[in-house]
Amino acid sequence: QKEVEQDPGPLSVPEGAIVSLNCTYSNSAFQYFMWYRQYSRKGPELLMYTYSSGNKEDGRFTAQVDKSSKYISLFIRDSQPSDSATYLCAMRGTGGSNYKLTFGKGTLLTVNP
Amino acid sequence: GAGVSQSPRYKVAKRGQDVALRCDPISGHVSLFWYQQALGQGPEFLTYFQNEAQLDKSGLPSDRFFAERPEGSVSTLKIQRTQQEDSAVYLCASSLGRSNEQFFGPGTRLTVL
Questions:
Q1: pLDDT tens profile A71-105
Q2: Could you say which of B4, B31, B43 has the minimum Cβ distance to residue A103?
């Protein structure tokens, strides 16, 4: 079993829909949780960054972390065709290996106009 | 430059050939990382440099993989005697420090025939 599990989709929604993306993890040492967006033939770019449990909102994006359930989510409101991309969750711990990101497989999202 | 650059963007190699992949990090970024992203998977950590020192090479799949950053700036990932299973996108990322945000390059897509 991988340390980070993410449903690869694909997920197809109409423009304006609310999108929910999720990851589960098994390593309780993870303290920092990130969502990256990766367009085709591009490198990942950081969308959201959360420390420990709680919610964080940035425009149309909301990240949630529930450490007790080892479950993280990304919500996209009023989705746009430009949101079509692969969304990767990533996490890291603290201490000696705090630089090492562990990624999920990524979920391919298509927003249809 | 404005971001992390990688060259070549695409590389086709015959099985058994040696390849060298280059990464130019963001100027002033002390930390540099290499990741391997297989088709349909998330990036997986290969190795980490702080300046010219390679502090972690635990993710390198075999001794055919070698990375260097001799002057603490540009880095090269070398793969000797390439195998078909080496086919993947190789991503380079850099950051100000080991636990700061990692900025990714566009990747080099390696195909081994």
A1: 999 999 999 999 999 999 999 998 888 899 999 99
A2: B43
Minimal Cα distance from A87: which residue of B? B42
- Contact assignment for B99 to A98 by CB distance below 8 Å: yes
Write down the residue that tokens 């002033």 correspond to. B28
* Calpha distance B81→B64 (Å, rounded): 7
- A107-112 vs A11-14, strand pairing mode: parallel
B106:A101 CB<8 A = no
* pLDDT tens sequence across B76-93: 999 999 999 999 999 999
**Two tokens at A110?**
């298509």
The single residue listed with the structure tokens 């000696």 is A96
Q: Is B1 on the interface with A (CB under 8 A)?
A: no
